[in-house]
Design a protein that fits this description.
flat; 6 helices; three-stranded mixed sheet; 2 domains
Length: 164
């Protein structure tokens, strides 16, 4: 299924405001960094794996009204146990139970099924923000949905899509 315009723009904003700065921070730290991605979609229509949804899982508070407002009813307790356990291990031992960030970009993914480590799961998309093949003066690529063309053009004009 193809992503809609709102989903694509949401991913662009997430890359620009969160993922790229997070990768730079993790790359630049001398102390260990651990990166995770919360990918379980809310049971509420249209919410997806929205910002702050993971907090009910981190604190094992899925039965609280505020957590249910984001997650909907029936959030999986096994996912809460896994995520809460990782945070407790990190606070107690300094390690959440997966590999620290390095050049392979290990990211612990929490979503459907058992948590697992993916290596560089967003590297291809994030590379598009800095690749030398992007020409900020050019129009968006052919085939770009018409409603996305102004967004991409604006990001390019503002310097958000630039070469390293």
């Amino acid at each position: 299924m193809d992503a809609g315009t709102a989903e694509i723009v949401g991913q662009l904003v997430t890359d620009h405001l969160l993922r790229i700065p997070l990768h730079r921070l993790a790359d630049g730290r001398e102390d260990p960094s651990y990166v995770y991605e919360f990918a379980w979609p809310s049971r509420r229509p249209g919410m997806g794996a929205c910002h702050a949804l993971e907090l009910g899982f981190v604190f094992d508070s899925g039965d609280e009204p505020d957590a249910r407002k984001l997650a909907g009813e029936g959030a999986p307790q096994a996912l809460s146990d896994a995520m809460h356990g990782a945070w407790v291990r990190f606070v107690s031992d300094g390690e959440p139970g997966w590999e620290r960030w390095d050049a392979r970009h290990p990211v612990r993914r929490f979503g459907h099924g058992a948590p697992h480590t993916a290596y560089g799961p967003r590297d291809r998309e994030l590379a598009l923000w800095t690749t030398d093949t992007v020409d900020a003066t050019q129009d968006p690529p052919p085939g770009t949905p018409s409603e996305l063309r102004p967004v991409i053009s604006r990001l390019r004009r503002n310097g958000a899509l630039r070469r390293r």
